[in-house]
Amino acid sequence: MSLETVLGNIISVMSLLVVIPIIVSSAKSVTAGSNKVLSVFFTFSMVSYFLSEVYYFTYNLLIPDTRMPFAANEIAEASMILFLCAVLEVTMGREKKVNVPVFIFSVMFIGSNIVLWILWSGEWIKNILFGLPYVYFFYLLISGILKSRAATVKEILIFMIASFVVFGLEAAALMPDERIGEILEVSCYPIMYILWILIFVRTVSALRTKEISSAGKEIYLSFSLHIWTMLLMFLSAGIFYNIASLLYIVVLLLMYRSFKKELSEDGIC
User: Rounded to an integer, what is the distance from CA 109 to the centroid of its chain?
Assistant: First the structure.
């Protein structure tokens, strides 16, 4: 078993130790007040993540240093995203019309990632099928961010331009010349982690702000950090993947904190 796999297993155990009390606490919120639906969906999303991580840890323990094929953990990850979509829908309320520009933008953003996943793995059906929930998740996120004014249109555009630069470099890194490919791939990491830090700072700032009604800003920002961290993991290799996995533990805690703050604004906590 390689050092990277050992580190990955240690991080998996840390993730499980963090998510278990989150599940227990969020499950208790189901019976604590009127907004039970939000608590149910958030709890189920964390349970889905728990099952995915258990499978991932078990596979790496039993069959280390091998690429994981299509497996149950990917179904659990898709389930998590769908439950988080439900959390966003409850937070936002019912929208009468589809925001076509945001939807098109979401398809382009996630579609770019799906293309990269296919180029990397060669698996068409799986990546397209399991990429679809991310399109809807991203659509809800951008819609919620705009509605709550968690970020301005200008800030979103700057973030997206930087993201597409990363996607372009990642695609170019797959060229036959391995030396140039490695240089291009490494050049992506500063951009990706700077963007992560910016979203993290904005999320923590929103959580520390004492507003009577934040319109779900914390939810939208922490969930944005969640999807960006997942993309970091998908686009990273080696030690950078382990770093992104460690950051994901931080994201779980921020998501839980934003969930609890949303409940407190509803008079539950």
Answer: 14
Unique residue bearing structure tokens 């099952």: 51
> How many angstroms separate the CA atoms of 180 and 184, rounded?
6
Task: Identify the top-confidence range among 61-75, 90-104, 136-150, 203-217.
Answer: 136-150
Helix (H) or strand (E) holding 266: none
User: H or E stretch including 210?
Assistant: none
**Is the pLDDT score of 120 beyond 70?**
yes
Q: What is residue 216's DSSP assignment?
A: T
Cβ contacts of 241-247, under 8 Å, gap ≥ 24: 241/4, 241/8, 242/4, 242/7, 242/8, 242/11, 245/8, 245/11, 245/12, 245/15, 246/11, 246/14, 247/196
Cα(10)–Cα(231) distance, integer angstroms: 21
Residue for token pair 């604004």: 265
Find the mean pLDDT for residues 78-101: 87
Q: How many CA atoms lie within 13 A of 257 on its CB side?
A: 17
Q: Residues 189-237: pLDDT tens digits? A: 899 999 999 999 999 988 887 765 556 888 999 999 999 999 888 888 7
Angle between helices 178-208 and 217-235 (to 10 degrees): 160
* High-pLDDT (> 90) share of the chain, %: 33
Residue keyed to tokens 């309320």: 93
